[in-house]
Design goal:
With about 400 residues, the protein is of the alpha/beta class. About 45% of the residues lie in helices and about 15% in strands.
Length: about 400
């Protein structure tokens, strides 16, 4: 085994043990070039989910080369998205948060740590949701894809072992489950429309049945975070890893001996960023957030395998940032036929709530007589974890995991 391979596995095992990476403000970092990112009269603490560290390792030095960032030092903490969000609520030092899913920022809004209008008026934000970058859900397979895994239906074979993290702690797990659920849900809608009839409840039942089969028969282990899931796959477990495309690109670049592809039907991953309103360096935190949406920052994100807001939310379906990369970096982004989104699923669930008022009431899909919007309705229906004694109902996917 090569020294590089040993190093990758040793790092992965260390991450699995500690569950979080903390880079202390000590004047030196694990930057490949040994760059000091901690010095400065202002200090920003980034609390983020595990995966974007590879991007921030390049973004932070670039920001410190700007006029706004010249006197700003950084400390960083990375881990499973839900865990990081809960730590921020417990007042772990945080000035900027970047989580895998919007509900992890909503938790901070509810705690009074992030302003309610955090998504509004962010310069150059194509998403309208303060999402500087994201990805799509990909399949990572063993080299040569020996089991021929290309579609979501291929993963229903009980002889296949799928590696995906636990949605109780990981935001990436939620994206990994939204992708097959949406593929089966919207496929059934299309088939119904061809027959001249549409029941959103029926489409949900079809998707729920297939997702239950997927989780119960092929998800043998459930790592805590997307990065830990990658480490598990690197160590030889599983036939296919469900992952962010950017994580697949990183794995291909650093480890090799894998193949990756996007299934024909995938899902748009949106990774939002917000400023914590208790920051002692509020202006610098806002400057750094705004920098993440600039053309320079977008090219850095894309070079590290992320799909930027200018590409993910382009109204013409174009990818100007990816297209500006060198040919070899462009080739790392794999094609797909269709990608579904949180907004599409939310609109469908609003129609489902109107079709079945009892289901609406059971899961709290509406508020003040109107359907919840965006992640609010998706989270309530699929991922909600009811507090004991609250009388609330767990989300459908949460129930699937409890049962299996």
């Amino acid at each position: 085994m090569s020294n590089r391979r040993n190093t990758v596995i040793a790092s992965a095992i260390a991450l699995a043990v500690v569950g979080v990476i903390f880079v202390a403000p000590s004047g030196s970092t694990d930057e490949p070039n040994g760059a000091d990112i901690s010095s400065g009269s202002h200090r920003l603490n980034i609390v983020a989910y595990a995966v974007p560290k590879v991007g921030f390792d390049h973004i932070i030095p670039a920001f410190r080369d700007t006029e706004q960032g010249r006197d700003v030092g950084f400390a960083q903490s990375y881990g499973a998205s839900g865990d990081q969000s809960r730590k921020a609520v417990r007042r772990v030092p945080a000035d900027i948060v970047n989580f895998s899913v919007e509900p992890d920022i909503t938790r901070l809004v509810n705690a009074g740590l992030v302003d309610e209008d955090w998504k509004d008026n962010v310069p150059e934000d194509e998403s309208g949701k303060s999402v500087p970058f994201g990805s799509v859900v990909s399949f990572v397979t063993r080299e040569g894809n020996p089991k021929g895994l290309n579609t979501w239906d291929d993963l229903l074979d009980s002889d296949v072992e799928v590696i995906s993290p636990n949605p109780a702690s990981s935001g990436s797990a939620k994206w990994n489950l939204l992708a097959p659920y949406s593929a089966w849900f919207f496929r059934d809608i299309a088939e119904q429309e061809a027959r001249g009839e549409v029941s959103y409840v029926h489409a949900h039942e079809v998707a729920e049945e297939k997702l239950t089969q997927l989780v119960s028969s092929t998800f043998k282990v459930r790592p805590k975070s997307g990065r830990e899931a990658t480490s598990t796959f690197e160590q030889g477990q599983g036939n296919v890893l469900l992952s962010y495309e950017n994580e697949a690109i990183l794995l291909d670049r650093t480890s090799g001996n894998i193949d990756y592809l996007n299934p024909p039907e995938t899902f748009t991953i949106e990774n939002p960023v917000a400023v914590v309103n208790t920051s002692e360096s509020l202006q610098q935190a806002e400057d750094f957030r705004d920098y993440l949406f600039t053309d320079d920052a977008e090219r850095i994100w894309a070079s590290q395998g992320f799909r930027t807001g200018s590409d993910l939310f382009n109204q013409q379906g174009q990818t100007p940032i990816i297209d500006s990369l060198p040919a070899d970096e462009q080739a790392a982004f794999k094609p797909y036929e269709v990608t579904f989104s949180i907004d599409q699923l939310a609109d469908a669930f609003a129609k489902l709530a109107a079709e079945d008022p009892a289901l609406d009431e059971l899961h709290g899909l509406s508020k003040d007589g109107k359907p919840r919007k965006g992640w609010g309705i998706v989270d309530a229906f699929l991922f909600k974890r009811a507090q004991p004694g609250s009388g609330d109902t767990d989300g459908v996917i949460t129930q699937i995991y409890q049962e299996v």
